Amino acid sequence: MPQTSSPLRPTLVLALAGTSLLALSLTAHAQDQAAAASTEGTTTLEEIVVDGGSGGVITADGYVGKSSATGAKVDTPFLQTPQSVSSVTAQQLKDRNPQTLLDVLAYTPNTRTTAYGFDPRFDSFTVRGFDVTYNGVFRDNLRQPGAGSSLFKTEPYGLEGVSILRGPSSALYGASGAGGLYNLITKRPTEETLREVEVQYGTNNRYQGQFDFSGAVNDTDPFYYRLTGLARNSDTEQVGVPDDRLYIAPAFTWKPDEDTRLTVLGEYSRTKTGGTAAYYFDTTTGKVTDFFAGNPAFNDSVQNQGRIGYEFEHRFNETFTFRQNVRASTLDIEADWAFAYAPNAVDPTLIDRSAGSFEERLSAIVIDNQLVSEFDTGAFSHTLLTGLDLMKLRYRSFNGYGVSPPLDTNDPTRGDPMDRIPYTERVDQDQWQIGTYIQDQIRYDAWTLTLGGRYDWVSTDTDSTDLVGGAVSANDQSDRAFSKRIGLTYEFDFGLAPYASYSTAFSPNAGYNQETDAPFKPTESEQEEIGVKYLLPNSNTMLSAALFNIDQENGLYYEVVDLPTGPANIQVQRGKLRSRGVELEANTSLDNGLSLTASYSYTQMKIIEGPVGTVDNDVSSTPRHQAALWAFYTMPEDTALDGLGIGGGARFIGASYGDDENTMENGSRVLFDAALRYDFAAIDKKMEGLALQVNATNIFDRRDPVCSAGFCYKDQGRTVIGSLKYTW
C-alpha cells in the first residue's frame, strides 16, 4: 500500500500526548487537594440516574427527562436547550424490556425504526427522514463511527438511557448527521449497592440470562464498580438467521473528592446472526413473497466488538472545570450472504441467487477535551465551553462475489452448502479528524442565548486493491468546514419555554463508493427550527412541539446499482434533500402510578436534486405521518391488585413509497405492544425483590411488507418474552 503523508498526523500525535499528560497532572492535583475539597454550590436534583459528567447522562423523574449534557456538552435543562430534545429513561427501559436498540427507540418522535422490517444484523433507523445509522449514533457523547457493514451493535441491557438531540449538531459534535444524534448512555458505577440477576425465555426458543452488580468496592475507599453481563441463544422467525450474543461490560469509578472523578468504561460482545434477512421481491408481480431470499446454509455473520475508555473530570474552582473523554474501540465482522433476485431462465420454479463473502475490521480512537468556564459579566451569566476533539479511524474490508445454487420454490427452506467465496477486492481507509469548538450559553433574566461554532479538519486516505489483477487505486481527500449554531429561548414563570434556532452539520463519510471506486464526499446540512417546551407546574409532565426545515447535500443512502458482478444494494450519494415537518411529544409520570409517553410527527421528505425520475419525489420508506403511545400503570398498594403493573402501546406508521421513483407503496400499519409485571413482595415480604414480567411486541402478529430503495422486507412478527428477575 503506498505511503501517504498528512499534516494532521503530527498534530494529532502531539495532541494525544499533551492531553494524556494533562490528565495525569490533574489527577495528581486532585490528590493534593483532596483534603480541601469543597461542595459549595452543589445542587440536589430530583433524581439523578447516575453521575456521568459530560457523558450526556439524563436527569429524570420516571418517564420525564429534565436535563442532559447531550444538547450542550454541559448539563443543561431541556427548557434551555434551543433544539428539539427527547430521552428514553431508565424507567422506560425497565417497563418495555427492549431487546434491540430499535425497540428502545420505537416510541421516540419522528424515529423510523421499521424501514428494513425484520433484520437483526444492524440497528438501522432514520430521524426526520435522514439516516443516522453511520453518523448519528454516539456513545457517552463520543462519536461511534461506522463504515460499510461495520456498525457497532448495541445491547440494551447495557444502557442507562438514551438522550436524543434532533437536527444538525456539528457546532459541538463535528461529524454528525442532518437528522440529529442519539446518545447511548452506558451503565455506570453507582454509590448505592445494586445486585440483579434475571432469566428470560421467549418466542423462537429465546434463552437469555443476565446480571448487573454495582456498588462500593469497600467501606473506606472512594472506589465504585459495575459489572453487567448477558448470554443469549436464540433462533428467529427466519430460517438460517440466529440471534446469539455474549456480552460483558465492566466499569470502574474513582472519586477522591467532590471535585474530581475518573470513570473507566469497558465492553466486549460477540454476536452471531445471518448475512441477510430479506425476503424475495417478485418484480413480475410487484409483491414481497414468503420466500427467504438468502441461502440458509450460507448465511453466517459473526461480529466481535470491544471498547475501552474513560471520562475524567476535575473542577479547579467555582469558575473552571476540565473534562477529558476518551474511547478506543474495535470491530471485526465476517459474513456470507446470498440474495435471490430473478426467476431462472430455464426452470420457472427456481430463482437465481447471487452470493458473496466479506470480512471487515474497523478501529477508532476518539478523544474530547473540554474546558468549562462559568462567570458573570454584569447582568449576564455565562457558561463558556471550549474544546478540542480528535478521531482516528481505520477501516479495512475484503469482498468476494459469486453465485449460489438457485432457490427452489418447491422447497424454499432448504439450505445449499457452499464454500466461502474467494476475495477479489480489498479496501483500506484511514481517516483523521481534528475539531475545535466554542460555545457560550448567555443567560439574562429569563432569556438564554446559545452561540456555538466549530472548525473541522479531516483527512481521508483510501486504497482499493484488485486482488485478482493486482491493480491499486489510491485516493487522498482533505476536507474542512465551519459549523455553527445560534439559539434563543425564553422561560416563563409557569414553565413555558419557546425557542428558535439555526444550526448546521458537516459529516465526513467513512467507506467508499463501490460504483465510482472513490471515497464519499462530506455530507453537509442546515436547519431552521422553532418550537416550545412546557414543564407543567406541580405536575411531572413535559410537553413539546417543534417546526423544522432541513436541507442536506451529499447524503449517503442505499440504492440498487448494477455492478460488473451483478445488481447490489450499495451506498450512494445524492444531490440535495429537504425535510420539513412538525413534531409533538408528551411525557408524564404521575403520583397515581401512571406513566405515559406519546408522540406525533409529520414529515415531508423531498428529493430536490437527484437521479433522473426522482426529483420532487418523496424519499423511499419515509412516511408522512407517524404516531406512538405507550402507557404503564402500577396498581395502588393495599388493594387486591397490589404488586401488579400493566402496560400497553400502539405505534402508527403511515404510508410511504418503496423506491425513490415512487412507483411502489408501503401501506400504513399499526403495531400493538403490551407488558405485564408482578412483584411477589405483595404476597409475602420474604419474596421482596422477586418480580415476573412478560412483554409482547406486535401482539397481533401483523407482518406487512416494507420496501426501501427497492429492497423489500417484512415487519417482525409477534414476540413474547417472559422475565424472572431478582434484586437484592
From TrEMBL:
<keyword id="KW-0812">Transmembrane</keyword>
<keyword id="KW-0410">Iron transport</keyword>
<comment type="similarity">
    <text>Belongs to the TonB-dependent receptor family.</text>
</comment>
<dbReference type="Pfam" id="PF07715">
    <property type="entry name" value="Plug"/>
</dbReference>
<protein>
    <submittedName>
        <fullName>Iron complex outermembrane receptor protein</fullName>
    </submittedName>
</protein>
<dbReference type="GO" id="GO:0009279">
    <property type="term" value="C:cell outer membrane"/>
</dbReference>
<feature type="signal peptide">
    <location>
        <begin position="1"/>
        <end position="30"/>
    </location>
</feature>
<keyword id="KW-0732">Signal</keyword>
<dbReference type="InterPro" id="IPR000531">
    <property type="entry name" value="Beta-barrel_TonB"/>
</dbReference>
<keyword id="KW-0675">Receptor</keyword>
<dbReference type="InterPro" id="IPR039426">
    <property type="entry name" value="TonB-dep_rcpt-like"/>
</dbReference>
<keyword id="KW-0406">Ion transport</keyword>
<dbReference type="InterPro" id="IPR037066">
    <property type="entry name" value="Plug_dom_sf"/>
</dbReference>
<feature type="domain" description="TonB-dependent receptor plug">
    <location>
        <begin position="80"/>
        <end position="180"/>
    </location>
</feature>
<keyword id="KW-0813">Transport</keyword>
<keyword id="KW-0472">Membrane</keyword>
<keyword id="KW-0998">Cell outer membrane</keyword>
<dbReference type="GO" id="GO:0015891">
    <property type="term" value="P:siderophore transport"/>
</dbReference>
<keyword id="KW-0798">TonB box</keyword>
<dbReference type="GO" id="GO:0038023">
    <property type="term" value="F:signaling receptor activity"/>
</dbReference>
<dbReference type="InterPro" id="IPR036942">
    <property type="entry name" value="Beta-barrel_TonB_sf"/>
</dbReference>
<keyword id="KW-1134">Transmembrane beta strand</keyword>
<dbReference type="InterPro" id="IPR012910">
    <property type="entry name" value="Plug_dom"/>
</dbReference>
<dbReference type="GO" id="GO:0015344">
    <property type="term" value="F:siderophore uptake transmembrane transporter activity"/>
</dbReference>
<keyword id="KW-0408">Iron</keyword>
<feature type="domain" description="TonB-dependent receptor-like beta-barrel">
    <location>
        <begin position="254"/>
        <end position="699"/>
    </location>
</feature>
<dbReference type="InterPro" id="IPR010105">
    <property type="entry name" value="TonB_sidphr_rcpt"/>
</dbReference>
<dbReference type="Pfam" id="PF00593">
    <property type="entry name" value="TonB_dep_Rec_b-barrel"/>
</dbReference>
